[in-house]
Amino acid sequence: MNSSFNYLPQNERKKIMLICDDIRVHSGVATIAKELVLNTAQHFNWVNIAGAINHPEKGKRFDLSQDTNTNTKLTDASVFLYPVDNYGDADLIRHMIEVEKPDAIMLITDPRYFEWLFAIENEIRKHMPIIYLNIWDDYPAPLYNKAFYESCDALLAISKQTKLINELVLDEKRGKKIIEYVPHGLNHDVYYPIVKENELKELETLKSTIFGGKEKDFVVFFNSRNIRRKQTSDVIYSYRLFCDMLPKEKSDKCILIMHTTPIDNNGTDLYAVVDKICPDYRVELHGTKIEATLLNQLYNVADCTINIANNEGFGLSTAESLMAGTPIIVSVTGGLQDQCGFEYTADDYINIETLSNKKKHNHTPHGVWVNPIWPTATNINGSPLTPYIYDDRVNDYDVANAIFEFYNMGRDVRKEKGLKGREWALNNLSSKIMCDALINGIETTLEKFQPRKKYDLYKIV
């Protein structure tokens, strides 16, 4: 980690109040937030309003500066953390602004969690900007988010599709906002191809444990939550369809490893699904949370990693897989598109609404590291808070064929494609790229920030 990049002495740095998940935990939001803090601590001072449901450390204050120094080779980092229930409330934020005196507030996660904060945006933006690192899973452009987006000074979009959605929703007001693409970035020292002799021995031990001492020729890996939009049952069914294509002696040497909670009220009972849908083939379900070191080993054990979600803001697991040098199978939706190597920029990015026949896009140029699955059906879903959003559904037979295609390549070819995926990820999805873009976005916002007036005047005819 290059702590000298964009370095400013501590007393010259702007202080950013980051409201999101507790950066010490292992949620997707927390993982990215921690990476952002660690890789920009040389340029900004950070205060994390650290959210969790019924946070056990609520009301405490933690100084993470020395830990940050250790991890970044800095000597003067300033990182403080305040645990709160959920993400706090208006009174708490007013108090924290008075105590910490930040130069900007930055938010991460779904805007509905911050309705209470957007309600006081006029009060906050008289003194400092609100910066929203945001993502949205799919079209149609969510006009129900317009008030949220208008309450921010900057919208930093995690996916290319999100940047376009921000612009579509704001419409004529988009010129008054900072809207930039800040791609999710990963630490290449955490996720990497394992080649060192001592690490390879540990990998063989792990394989023996998982496989029960039996040799396996092909491993499909799934690492996501067991929730409906992740299509966990379809992953199992697609794997079964793939195994049905093989002779028994070959399917016996295949395995699907699913690192997810086996039973979740937001998803389904995967034990029951396996018993009914895939009883003749090997499916391993592992729900225990694991450290990044073991997770990297699992990516290295895998021959491909799969995510066929019908909605996906980014898809962290397949990006981690690429950084580890393992190829991926993804549905062409949301932020997963950013991992496919399509030749689209954030300004002309693919708009699902314009695709009358998605099958004609099956030959769209993409990276060799991915088998992209184009949706064969798009449905409208919704709820009172989010009235409409597309569900991009893939065909399980298409997924099975994509798995089969990787299987037929052989291990050496798969590894070659995976390594090209890592090379691409290093140039497109690295922590440095993400944090360079974040620093630029925050600095641009601070430079152009115009405090809100005390009140607005409207002429009523």
Percent of residues in beta strands: 15-25%
Regions with little confidence, pLDDT below 50 for 5+ residues: 352-360
The whole-angstrom Rg is: 23 Å
The biggest sheet amounts to: 8 strands, mixed
Structural class: alpha/beta
Instruction: Work out the helicity level.
Output: 25-40%
Principal-axes shape call: globular
Strand order of the largest sheet: 3-4-2-1-5-6-7-8
Tally the helices: what do you get? 16
How far do the termini sit from each other?
60 Å
Q: Quaternary state, please?
A: single chain
Mean pLDDT, nearest integer? 92
Number of strands: 16
Q: In a nutshell, what does this entry contain?
A:
Helices cover 36% and strands 18% of the residues.
Describe this structure in words.
The chain is of the alpha/beta class. Helices cover 36% and strands 18% of the residues. It has an 8-stranded mixed sheet with strand order 3-4-2-1-5-6-7-8, sandwiched between helices. A 6-stranded parallel sheet has the order 11-10-9-12-13-14, sandwiched between helices. The N and C termini lie far apart (60 Å).
